[in-house]
């Protein structure tokens, strides 16, 4: 038997609750292991207790007869609907005043205390304490336990949190510039004809109102002229004693549609004016001076991309894998968050897969695209390698099945990228590389294509928009040269065509082209930083993710740089990619 006892039956919010637990067997104290929870009783109004009595659970009655039952009784915790048709019930409309009854204020806390492991002493006693939350409700204390001999028991007790006088806001907290808020609040009273004083403060001004309350909810209009953002506080006094106090932050936002803006600011010693537009909000300060910071900022931007197609999901898995590898402690809270995001995006890819594990843009019906399929498999391989999920080598071989069928109709750039991923995954692709090299040799006789002036915008996507353009073919040529060198194979492409391709890729304004050139000829920190600086949020996610992944090895050789913290009301915030930014938390 488990007995639960509190020092009082009623508490005010913020009071310390003392709970005494007593375990006994046949009236004699016994030591036992207990688990105790204190839960808002309204939770059980939404969903009755699922767990059966602990005694019936561990020691159910054994039966030797056969009984027939319907599996429908197990659906939705014995709440299955009858299959027999019934007449619709009559409506029972309520008056408007009944529908709009004001409820007591509640904090977003449904569990006041949780003690997963308590042990009673030889006298069968155990104690614990907790602070009563701000919710005004009835609380249920449930204790379940087992002694050393395997005997079980449970006990239950109830207590209330209440106040004779308390307040609750009855107004929005966000307004548009030019609005004239009708500020007000409710005061709840348990007695009739209660004399009280209400003191409200806003923007340095204090207002005092003397009131006489009736029993129940009393709506009080506030007299403050609120025309700006700030903290509004209210204090309820009776006989010179503070009975309750609440506060809320009011915000006035600009009428125009919010647009995210980014600007570069050269910082010097002393004060630096940021020159922000009026009504600017969510102000963040990130360093873009060092390659490490540029790299991390791009990682975080990719992770925050909201779209859920194959391209974007794979483009999130790549930076998440890089962020996981950069963590020093894989048991930290940040590591758990990143691992969960990796698992969620891997699950998203599985949901997008079609027959034969082939992929279309959004998982719609149709023949899978070889390039999208390879991208999804490659992103999943990167994530699996990062978090230590092992698969047989034959498993990843399926990535090349659709490539073998569609290679002849694919752009050269897509073919080169697929084989670059396959080579990184240690898949057998030498024969496929020879076929790609021969295709480039046949295409490479058109050297005039490589001499055309490139006028494309830096944000245009080579992979998605113009995969068959002369620049895309040049990038494919340079990337294939790199792959052949790693595979110790010779190219059949004429040297002058290769040189044209290399020059065209190196002289373009595309970060992906510069990354491929860097892989082919090697580079240093300066070149890496220049490529990273050219990555923008307007560029396609797949090209940014590829550039980040291929440039990651150059980041490991760069010494870290510690930047000074900005002075003022700036708060440091850790980002998913391992970097940090500073967020404005001050006024104005």
From TrEMBL:
<dbReference type="InterPro" id="IPR051802">
    <property type="entry name" value="YfhM-like"/>
</dbReference>
<dbReference type="GO" id="GO:0004866">
    <property type="term" value="F:endopeptidase inhibitor activity"/>
</dbReference>
<dbReference type="InterPro" id="IPR001599">
    <property type="entry name" value="Macroglobln_a2"/>
</dbReference>
<feature type="domain" description="Alpha-2-macroglobulin">
    <location>
        <begin position="111"/>
        <end position="202"/>
    </location>
</feature>
<dbReference type="InterPro" id="IPR008930">
    <property type="entry name" value="Terpenoid_cyclase/PrenylTrfase"/>
</dbReference>
<dbReference type="Pfam" id="PF00207">
    <property type="entry name" value="A2M"/>
</dbReference>
<protein>
    <submittedName>
        <fullName>Alpha-2-macroglobulin family protein</fullName>
    </submittedName>
</protein>
